[in-house]
């Protein structure tokens, strides 16, 4: 596999995720887009790991997977806690912490 | 073009298409299922890039655990009742995020383009096929020697996350 193609695909998926975070107002889809950015970084790590014949990249992917799983679990728990209090999940309406 | 390469390019296109449709679909449940499709496409890509363990982990952690969490949250939140903005605000938001996405993509591709010659000169292993063999044992050894500290920190992080979620869920019951 040409490494430029793998890295280009990772860059494209990362940009789609970043644009999605700013475009959508549904917090669940925001989380999916953040996960997409995590996965793009993972793809670049795996591609470079194969390119250089080193396993370090795949080890880092393992660590990133664990962090991403913990992040999703905590994030969704916070989301549900907010929903219990407000009965509303629009990210534009949760603005009490605005300076 | 070998079978691996054909698989790689097919699933690369599918991954990008499903990523775009997650962003553009209006239905949260559809977004969730398209997101699963995206994650499974990435698992195929990892397998093609001779990272079988990462591919299996991707299916288990993302296709399994993270997905169940998302579906649970969708069931509880009923997020399909999100109101629409007025069209001027919506167009502004879409334009700004499109500009951000294109700008970021342009920046990343520019950096990639500039560093492509250096990457080609870096004297890579031409055949990464042997990376896949004995992958699990080598990865495990690396994780428990060179990357022991990050590994332990991550296990602490997971415990903290689990306890935090329990506390967050329990406080509501006491009130």
Question: Would you state the CATH class of the largest domain in chain B?
Answer: Mainly Alpha
Q: Which CATH architecture of chain A is right?
A: Orthogonal Bundle
Strand segment tally of chain A: 0
Which architecture name of the largest domain in chain B does CATH use?
Up-down Bundle
Into which percent range does the helicity of residues of chain B fall? over 70%
Integer-rounded radius of gyration of chain A: 17 Å
Order of helices and strands of chain A: HHH
Unreliable sequence segments of chain A: none
State the end-to-end CA separation of chain A: 49 Å
Q: How is the biggest beta sheet of chain A arranged?
A: none
SSE-based structural type of chain B: mainly alpha
Low-confidence stretches of chain B are: none
What's the tally of helices of chain A? 3
Largest contact between chains: A-B, 67 and 83 residues
User: In total, how many domains does the architecture of chain A comprise?
Assistant: 1
* Content-based structural category of chain A: mainly alpha
CATH fold label of the largest domain in chain B: Four Helix Bundle (Hemerythrin (Met), subunit A)
Percent range for helical residues of chain A? over 70%
Strand content of chain B: under 5%
- Oligomer state equals heterodimer
Q: How much strand of chain A?
A: under 5%
Could you list some keywords that capture this structure?
heterodimer, A: 99 residues, mainly alpha, Helix Hairpins, 3 helices, elongated, B: 175 residues, Four Helix Bundle (Hemerythrin (Met), subunit A), 2 domains, 7 helices, 83% helix
């Amino acid at each position: 596999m040409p490494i430029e193609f793998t890295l280009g695909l990772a860059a494209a998926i990362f940009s789609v995720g970043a644009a999605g975070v700013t475009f959508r107002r549904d917090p669940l889809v925001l989380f999916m887009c953040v996960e997409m950015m995590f996965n793009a970084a993972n793809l670049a790590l795996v591609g470079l790991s194969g390119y250089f014949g080193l396993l370090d990249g795949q080890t880092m992917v393992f660590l990133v997977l664990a962090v991403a799983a913990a992040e999703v679990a905590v994030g969704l728990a916070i989301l549900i806690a907010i929903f219990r209090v407000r009965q509303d999940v629009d990210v534009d309406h949760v603005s009490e912490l605005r300076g | 073009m070998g079978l691996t390469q054909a698989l790689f390019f097919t699933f690369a296109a599918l991954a990008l298409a499903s990523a775009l449709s997650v962003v553009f679909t209006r239905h949260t449940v559809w977004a969730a299922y398209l997101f699963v499709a995206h994650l499974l496409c990435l698992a195929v890509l990892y397998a093609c890039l001779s990272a079988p363990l990462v591919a299996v982990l991707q299916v288990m952690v993302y296709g399994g655990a993270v997905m169940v969490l998302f579906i649970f949250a969708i069931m509880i939140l009923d997020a399909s009742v999100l109101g629409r903005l007025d069209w001027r605000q919506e167009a502004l938001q879409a334009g700004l995020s499109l500009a951000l996405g294109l700008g970021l993509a342009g920046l990343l591709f520019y950096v990639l383009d500039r560093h492509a010659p250096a990457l080609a000169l870096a004297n890579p292993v031409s055949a990464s096929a042997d990376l896949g063999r004995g992958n699990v044992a080598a990865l495990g050894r690396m994780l428990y020697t060179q990357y022991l500290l990050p590994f332990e920190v991550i296990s602490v992080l997971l415990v903290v996350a689990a306890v935090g979620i329990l506390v967050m869920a329990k406080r509501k019951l006491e009130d």
